[in-house]
Amino acid sequence: MSHKALLQIYSDSFRDNYNDPCLTEYTTGKTISYGDLARKIARIHIFFEKAGIRRGDRVALLGKNTTNWVVTFMATLTYGAVIVPILNDFNSHDCAHIINHSGSVLLFVSDTNWAELDFDAVADVRAAISLESMKVIAEHPSDPDDPECRPDALKRIRQRISRTFRHRYPDGFKPEYIEYPEIDQETLALINYTSGTTGFSKGVMLSLRALWGNTCFGIDSKLHYKGSRALSFLPLAHAYGCAFDLMVPLAVGTHVTLLGRSPSPMILLRAMAEVRPSLIICVPLILEKIYKKMIVPAITTRTIRWVLAIPYLDRAVYPRIRAKLMRAFGGEFEEVIVGGAPLNAEVEDFLHRIHFPFTVGYGMTECAPLISYTPWREFIPTSSGHVLDGYMEAKILTEKEGEPGEILVRGTNEMSGYYRKPDITADTIEEDGWLHTGDMGTLGGPDGRTLFIRGRYKTMILSATGQNIYPEEIESKLNNMPYVMESLVVERDGKLVALVFPDSEAADKDNIDDSQMPAVMEKIRRELNTLVAPYEQIASIQLVPSEFQKTPKRSIKRFLYM
After folding, report:
1. What is the DSSP secondary-structure string of 336-398?
2. In what order do the strands lie in the sheet with 450-456?
3. Which of 108, 331, 414, 559 could staple 199 via S-S, CB 3.0–4.6 A?
4. How far is CA 510 from the centre of its chain?
5. Cα–Cα distances in Å, from 395 out to 124, 372, 448?
6. Measuring CA to CA, how many Å separate 364 from each of 95, 186, 206, 227, 340?
7. Closest CA to 26 of 245, 224, 244, 334
8. Collapsing DSSP states into helix, strand and coil, what is residue 515?
9. Distance (Å, rounded) from C-alpha 353 to C-alpha 317?
10. 538 neighbors 528 (Cβ within 8 angstroms)
């Protein structure tokens, strides 16, 4: 952990990798070097200075993953202002609320999001800057009650940046000019508004120290390294993608390709084949979709099912399946890190059997985000990795040792609290620093520091006989059943009910119409009940007509269906 302060890590990286490729936009093919990135950052720093932006001022950032999104993020961070990244999938009302609640004084916004946003609804924002053109597209007067107040002041400042830049660097912008301020590591650097499943968005305050912890762990673990390749397809406005598709890569000299579009399996597999990433950061849903698309059809043919049922003969098939999946992911990656939500148990078991290089980590926005991780060769199936040595610690709040309880964590990566929410912060963080995660689990493994997640504390259902029921575990089994696209297990009148959005494509393929679906689901219910404990029996399955509403991280918004 003998690393420099966070901003010095980036000034060193940008100088050391000055001529190396830094960012490529997959859709346009445009590439900039680390020197280009530093030069663009310097131009924004000049704009901030001339516009009177101070350290600690909040700057909102709303748009898809693009080069200018990254430039704005890193420029704000290295200037000493507070970046407020907003998930691109939030509706305009929520975006306006976040901008206002955070007290942002500038807004960098994509043209698409700008078209839906009411600028008058964010009256405290001095100016909006287009992420496409990087020009000021709207501005509120600094003093609307002063008839002498000059309009478009920031627009004029922005127009003069090139002249100011040339004056400041008359012999051109050089590596030795890259130097970022030394700022106390406890200083607020980022406010990340959660998009959780509870329906209440909170502003997580992350200090330079919390970002430093995640970045340094990534450096120490060699997740990325100089000259490695990354394909960024998770939203960078989310803590997971931000830390390991952006902050760690830029700290070591990785070449990052920004997908910049919705990561459907077809698009993602094509991009991976072209980029050949060295590390793949993934949420379970994407891996599960690729598993269903590529693996399930291959292992459900009559011949392959027969081979897999014979001991030792199955070992001849597994390497072929593994090789096919490795090629599909680009063929040159060290491992796939799965995080953000639980991985389907059937998918995890099969990938482990074929020795596919994957591992499951655990984190939350409140820890920027990483809490536990294990390299794939040391990964214990069904776990969520080893609590980060030297950075984080964990304990289980339980009445009986060995039984699941709420996971509490504390350490370097921990947030400073919820922005403007002291009461909720006090309820979440104990006086001695322990943070309530809201997740249920146990600690085990060889040294007792490996986490095993059971489910969310708030979604746990207490049966009539006093048994703890974790609906996520039942849903994992149900989602593997034929004709089930996704499911949600809830309690209704003291009984467990499964809400199911059916897989219409699979049903159509097998000539099953809507009138037959209830009978099919009843058969699935009976089969499911043979796989779960007696107290986990599903009383009925109810079909829902459309996909469950989800967060941008693709987690179901459970509160809408309780």
Report:
1. EEE-SSPPPHHHHHHHHHTT--EEE-EE-GGGSSEEE---GGGPPTT---BB-TTTEEEEEE-
2. 392-397, 405-411, 435-444, 450-456
3. 559
4. 36
5. 43, 13, 10
6. 21, 19, 12, 29, 8
7. 245
8. helix
9. 11
10. yes
The CA distance from 162 to 128, in Å, is: 19
Q: Is 559 helix (H, G, I), strand (E, B) or coil?
A: helix
Tell me the DSSP string of 26-59.
TTT--EEEHHHHHHHHHHHHHHHHHHT--TT-EE
Fill in the DSSP letter of residue 234. S
Exposed e or buried b per residue across 28-42, where buried means at least 16 C-beta atoms within 10 angstroms of its C-beta: eeeebbbbbbbbbbb
Pairing of strands 280-282, 255-258: unpaired
The closest alpha carbon to 41, from 187, 165, 198, belongs to 165
Alpha carbon 186 to chain centroid distance?
Answer: 23
Is 415 in contact with 203 (CB distance < 8 Å)?
A: no
Residue for token pair 């991280």: 553
The predicted-structure confidence for 447-458, as pLDDT tens digits, reads as follows 899 999 987 767
188-234: per-residue pLDDT in tens? 999 999 865 445 579 999 999 999 999 999 999 999 999 999 999 99
Please tell me the pTM assigned to this model.
Answer: 0.85
For residue 495, which phi and psi values (nearest 5 degrees)? -120, 155
Which residues on neighbouring strands pair with residue 24, listed in sequence order?
31, 257
> What phi and psi, each to the nearest 5 degrees, are found at residue 427?
-75, -25
